[in-house]
Structures are given as C-alpha cells and as structure tokens.
UniProtKB/TrEMBL annotation:
Lineage: Bacteria, Bacillati, Actinomycetota, Actinomycetes, Motilibacterales
Keyword set, alphabetical order: Membrane, Transcription, Transcription regulation, Transmembrane, Transmembrane helix
Ranges annotated as spanning the membrane: 119-140
Gene3D superfamilies named among the record's database cross-references: Anti-sigma factor, zinc-finger domain (1.10.10.1320)
Domain Putative zinc-finger: 10-44
Protein species of origin: Motilibacter peucedani
The protein's name in its UniProt record: Putative zinc finger protein
Length: 243
C-alpha cells in the first residue's frame, strides 16, 4: 500500500476516533476502526490521548449543555471566553485533547451530512458531470488529452465517478469524486495504455459510498487510452472511461 493510500485511510480512521469512543459507530464501522488502530501506531496514540478526555464527558450534566448549533459556536470561542462560558466543561488536561475531540466530532458530523447530500444528488450530479466533461473537451481546441472524464459503471457494479486530470511531462495527477462504493471494500485506481497494460495511481478503502481522492500515476495522460478503478479482492473493473 502506498504512502498516499495510507494517508487516506488514516484520515478516515481518525475522523472515526471520537464517534468510536462515544459509541456512535455501527458494529461494522467500529470493527474497521479498531482494526485500523491495532495496525497503525499513530492512530493508536491518538485514540489513547482521547480516551481520558472522552471519559470526562460522562461527568457533565446534560442540562448544562448547549444545543448543537451553540456547541459549534463554542468551538470558535477563545480560551478565555470558553473558560468564562462554562468552566465545568474545561478539564485539567492538555488543550490539544479538547480540540481533538471537538474536531473529530465535527468531521464526523460533516461526513454524515455529505453522505446524505450525495445520496440525494448522486444521479443528477453524475448526469451533470457528463455534460460538463463533454463541454470541457469540446471547448479545449488544440488539447491532445481530455482534462475531465465521467467513469461509467461496468460489470454490474453501482460505482460511478468524475475525474479531473492535472498533467506533467511524466505523470498524471487524478482528482476523483466517486459514488456507489461498497463500504469497507478496497479499490485501486489506474490509467490504461493503448496496448492494454495499466499503471496504478494508488489504492484506498471505502469508508461509506462516496469518496474524494487525489492520486498520481507515473504515466503522461497523452499516453493513456482509459482510466478506471478495480476491486482489489477479486480484481474486477467496476468503473472506467475511455480517453
């Protein structure tokens, strides 16, 4: 697994640490998070630092807590304002631990909101992306390679994606938004040459049905004939587009 894919998995796992300690994950999500922590010493350290702070939350009187919107406002307060607002909620622990808990909870709430929005907008967004991709290609006279493509489902999968390319003389950076992924499954992104051989851009594990990735393949875009991604457990293509 490459360094970039490890960073993507750690980012997703760290966003789940707060909800894990608060019991807000499903059994499947909790199992995946604990499996990652067991294999990643950095995430294990983060979890160990959060545990004593989260334990203190059980001593807080719920009647004194603000509504969700007020809690988000509380995060923007200075340390002096936070102390004056509610001294009981500021434990005698390193300040970065409090921020880690709040950041983890905020990221998890944002992920849940994004999943709901994308589930509702996936179909129209995919159609719009295809139109935009066509307009971009038509509107770039003299360009020998497309800058954006919509990946269609193949092999009976439900996965689709929109990719944007940033090219150099020797590499292609691929920025991808994907939908219809299988939670917990591992995927690999690639560019395919005209002779059918493929150059990998990176791998990742799906944490929910959607994702945003920025990966790089060591192949110029004008030497590629197709782009797509594959499930790593059975090596089946799930989405692709010709270039």
């Amino acid at each position: 697994m490459g360094r970039m894919s490890e960073s993507q998995e750690c980012l997703a796992a760290r966003a789940a640490l707060g909800p894990l300690l608060l019991g807000r994950l499903t059994p499947a999500e909790e199992a995946r998070a604990r499996a990652h922590v067991a294999a990643c010493p950095h995430c294990a350290t983060d979890l160990a630092e959060l545990e004593p702070v989260v334990a203190l939350l059980g001593r807080v009187d719920p009647d004194t807590l603000a509504e969700d919107d007020e809690l988000l406002d509380y995060r923007s307060l200075s340390d002096e304002q936070a102390e004056a607002w509610s001294p009981a909620l500021v434990p005698a622990a390193p300040a970065h631990l409090r921020e880690s808990v709040l950041d983890a909870l905020g990221r998890e709430d944002e992920l849940r909101r994004r999943r709901r929005r994308r589930a509702l907008l996936a179909a129209p967004m995919a159609a719009a992306a295809a139109v935009v991709a066509l307009l971009l290609v038509i509107g770039l006279p003299g360009s020998s390679a497309p800058q954006e493509r919509h990946l269609a489902s193949v092999g009976g999968s439900q996965a689709t994606a929109t990719v944007h390319f940033v090219t150099t003389a020797r590499t292609t950076e691929i920025r991808m938004d994907a939908w219809g992924l299988v939670d917990g499954r591992r995927y690999g992104l690639w560019l395919e040459r005209h002779d059918g051989t493929r150059v990998g851009a990176g791998t990742w594990t799906a944490w929910g049905p959607t994702c945003h990735l920025e990966l790089t393949a060591k192949l110029p875009l004008d030497e590629a004939a197709a782009v797509g991604f594959t499930t790593l457990d059975d090596h089946k293509d799930v989405a692709r587009a010709a270039l």
